[in-house]
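dumping this here before i forget
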Amino acid sequence: PARQAGPTGDLFVHEYFSSGAYAGELRASSLAPEGLAMLATVLEDFAGCHLGRVVTTLDRRLTADVLKLGLAAWADIHWAETPADEMALFQKLAASCAGTFVIAPETDEILLERRAQVEAVGGRLIGHSRDAIKLCTDKLAFFEHLVRHDLPTIQTKLFEPQAATSKFRFPIVVKPRDGAGSTDTYLISDEQGYAALRDSLSATFGRPGAAIVQPYLRGLSLSVAAIVDGTSGHLSVFPIGQQQLSDDGRFRYQGGAIPACLPARVDASQLVTRICRSIDGLSGYIGFDLLLPADSQRLLVVEANPRLTTSYLGYRALAKENLAARILQPERAKEPIAWRSGRVEFTADGRIRSIAG
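structure:
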């Protein structure tokens, strides 16, 4: 089972894309800026808990960005020159620190692999069990889990790139079975669009069982987070937020607003509580993507994210307390979180656009 860090001791915080683990071109996408924004906020918050020294690793290519953000004020930085260098540092710090907090995508089992690395060196992971992460990572398995527990969700099937026709009426959404951050996600409106993309989809999802397909439902894209105490089962459900997604058919995350403007009768707390109660091994922060269909007031569960999500940037601005303290000590979930009145809007790279109210 997942174990929590002790009340004192060094804390190792790992953010995959800015850590030095990612060998790709950092400037080619939003991965590094969003990763750094997430890392900067959690380093500041963990440092504010005053429980011990906070340490992290950073990609040497991001030196200028790191200096601009002033990350050294909140953590001891270990610079990684290469992915191999980063892995050696990761293992060393995970073994020597009282706790390790991992922010990594579920894609290609990266999150699971990092969890395994912490355990392999005798470290203490602050987070969910392997089985809980595995369930939430596999979108088809998670859909089947929701159905078994009578939780509202969207019909989901394996996508077969070579199939002549779609398993659902158009429009449809095709996405990786283990994807994160809307990567390789496609809205396909009709047979012509399906035919035009078939070769590209076959190349992207060539491995059997690599992708899923769902019917596209118009509505509000929403998200909500919770912190679960894996020992007592207590949980804190956060306010529901609205996601800002690109309208180009790729659903790129652009930020959000918390709380979402919804009809009074729409409440996610009971639904999120039921989901969390149905998953064994949860311990710490988890996020859920939800959908409120245009023709309904019944929330549907889209997917689960067994890690810190970008919406944390908005939640921390709205909270009257340090949310990181609850992540380190989830037993605090038995006490309600105090939230500011009003609404916070934020971008995917961590900029708070406005706090109204």
